[in-house]
Amino acid sequence: MLSRVAENIYWLGRHVERAENAARVVAVNANLLMDLPRGIAPGWRPLVDITGANAQFETDYQDYDEGNVVHFLLGDNRNPGSILSALEAARETCRTIRDFLPREVWEVLNELYLYARDQLHRGMTKSGRHAYLKSIILGAQGIHGLLSGTMLHDQGYEFLHLGRYLERADMTTRIIDVRSANLLPHETTELKPYETIQWVSVLRSLSAYQAYRRSEQVRVQREPVLRFLFQHQEFPRAVCYCIDASRQSLEQLPRNEAALRVAGRLRRNLEAAEPWRFDQQQLHAHVDVLQLAIGELHEEIARTWFPPPLVLDVAA
Amino acid sequence: MSIDWNTYPCEDFYDELVAAPGQGREAFAGFLDDLKALGSDELVARQEAAEVAIKAMGITFTVYSDEGGAIDRAWPFDIIPRIIPKSDWDRVEAGLKQRVQALNLFIDDLYHDQRIIEEGVFPAAVLAKSANFRPQCVGVDPPLGIWAHICGSDLVRDADGTIYVLEDNLRVPSGVSYMLENRLVTKRVFPELFEHYAPLPVDDYPSQLFDTLAALSPRPADYPQVVVLTPGIYNSAYFEHAYLAQQMGCELVEGRDLFVDTDDCVYMRTVDGPKQVDVIYRRVDDLFLDPEVFRPDSTLGVPGLMRAWTVGTVALANAPGAGVADDKVVYAFVPEIIKFYLDADPILPNVPTYRCMDPESLAYTLDHMERLVVKPANESGGYGMLIGPASTSAERAQFAQLIQADPRNYISQPALKLSTVPTIVGRGLEPRHVDLRPFILSADRQQVTMGGLTRVALRKGSLVVNSSQGGGSKDTWIVPD
């Protein structure tokens, strides 16, 4: 398999996952705000914080109001993390490897992109938003389903997996980081009922609520939620699960020693920590360490299997 | 609105479907009634369905604009097929095989002994000014002695029904993927007509192409490593490169995926490490193939590729330098070329052509420009031409200067009355001009596509069929008589 194709399919996995995650985050925030009293509602800014694109946002928008933030995350093509940008990037990547993927994958991705672009105005309205985001999430899941059901489960499939799970691990850590930081200032008893609602929303943005209920059987609160999202080995959006899935893909690839070492270190780090004992600052530092490790794993994958970066020989 | 074939204009031009008012062509005479029975509302509905299918299938081509860079456009397609009886087609097929066989002998001769020049049939002066002759290829022996493995020749039909060859594309001819996709779309929109008329299949082209390429492999192995080399996604024919690679089950590579090692073999970079490549179906122009030999600034090619090809560790299709026979002045000599190498008369005629290098032809061309089409030797895509009947006197004056400055670079031909095919316009059917590009494969044997790509000028009265300039296409049916 061509190194360039491996790289592209990896990014296809990442971009489709990114579009889906962005849709989830927006959908859940809209829901959450309806349940919180005005005074303590965190508003829309945390969504931009999650993507880490605040600098980009602030050059283009005056304030973090609903319309601006939703546009930034759904349809702003200057924001590489917006749904539309991610789908456009996925589509461009898919175009370059069309010969490698089942034809239906291109058709479905092309349709999803055209839908996201042409129906954007619906996603921008309060009443149309839910249906729009649901279509994006189902579309992205549909692409993964189609790939899993029709593509050769060869090396290319492993790279798709790697892209998807690294992106997902990264996103889960970001959501935990930002969402828990925005949670209520300590133990103010009269606001206690709302804390549960906020942790429920963290779970919901990862479609983790039902899974949490079935698996943990304790009420929703900080400690078990953090344990669940960092360390659960069966919930497919938990960080630990994502890293294990990446490691399984790495096992299938040739010349994998260095990448496996990095992934192993990351896994041990995850297992050893007990983030629920951390205060907010320690939790933030822990997430930083994990994100750096995820970045390091990406670098190692690129170094081992992707083509060398194109350097123009100026002398020639 | 109902369709009335009695008022359909078919008298000034040869119409491919309508023989005379109200009357279809004999081999498929019922076809007009079938369209009429469907009615124009149904035809328009099916045309719309076809457009939706094309969009969903992502069939695109790329056009360039000054402001927006490259834009992907849906492929313009008209659902009414162009139909040719099998008996007519057999003759065309034989003519194309003869022509390409002679052209391959001609190219091989030019890069070796140049007998045809020595014997005074082809002027050395023409070769000396050829833009596509590559001195780097002199003396090279490509596998099987064949240089143009894939040829796309453009055919047109004049008012009296004669089919002429208008030009031969021997460099990187494109369009075959659209021929295949048009067929898929037509099967979806006209299933009942399709079953009834049973046009001969075109779908085996990718496997024929693969066999052609595999036959060139320098390593006699069961599974030669064949790759398609593309300039990348911004090339106007990228869709086709990806499509053919996918259909053949080959890797689609870009220049940076390949490298030539110290053993002069070509390798591609894979996840498992380097892997040797045997045959490259290259869709990159000669001058970009190898920065060590041709344009040093090319990033599309592979340094050392010409070295590998010259020593024979890799086969290139088409061979570098094959474009020398793609020249419009060379075109004018094809009847003599066929005579010289095959000792036969051409089965398919050339359009009568005036070579401006001859003083008499030059004078005639300058005197009759308003009736002629003037073409430069080495342009394609319909660029740089003068269409006399549609030109202004200022344009003619400008061309007269160009021709006189470099007569070797120009030919002229009478403006043909290109044949028409009924085409959906608004809610009815109107005649629109068409040409036809069949594809000829040559290796250990020759194969011709069953029909080819029919291109149609969608603007009323227009003769320009190029997709970059407002042309569309149709499915082409070869039907048993």
Short summary:
The complex is a heterodimer of chains A (316) and B (481). Chain A is mainly α.
Structural class of chain A: mainly alpha
Number of individual domains of chain A: 2
Largest sheet of chain B at a glance?
A: 5 strands, mixed
**Strand-residue proportion of chain B:** 15-25%
Q: How many β strands of chain B by DSSP?
A: 24
Largest sheet of chain A: none
Structurally, the number of domains of chain B stands at: 3
Provide a descriptive summary of the structure in words.
The complex is a heterodimer of chains A (316) and B (481). Chain A contains 15 helices and no strands. Chain A is globular, with a radius of gyration of 20 Å. Chain A has helices at residues 3-35, 45-51, 54-60, 66-74, 83-96, 103-118, 120-123, 126-150, 155-181, 192-205, 209-216, 222-231, 239-251, 257-272, 280-305. Chain B has helices at residues 31-57, 86-110, 115-118, 124-128, 176-189, 191-197, 205-214, 238-248, 305-311, 328-332, 334-342, 359-367, 393-405; strands spanning 18-20, 23-24, 60-65, 69-74, 77-85, 150-157, 163-169, 226-229, 251-253, 258-260, 266-270, 273-276, 279-282, 315-317, 354-355, 372-376, 386-387, 410-414, 420-425, 428-437, 439-442, 446-448, 453-457, 471-479. In chain B, helix 1 (31-57) packs across helix 5 and helix 2 (86-110) packs across helix 11. Chain B folds into 3 domains: 1-202 and 325-351 and 416-481, no CATH class; 219-313, 3-Layer(aba) Sandwich (Rossmann fold), CATH 3.40.50.11290; 354-413, 2-Layer Sandwich (Dna Ligase, domain 1), CATH 3.30.1490.270. The interface between A and B is medium-sized, with 28 and 28 residues.
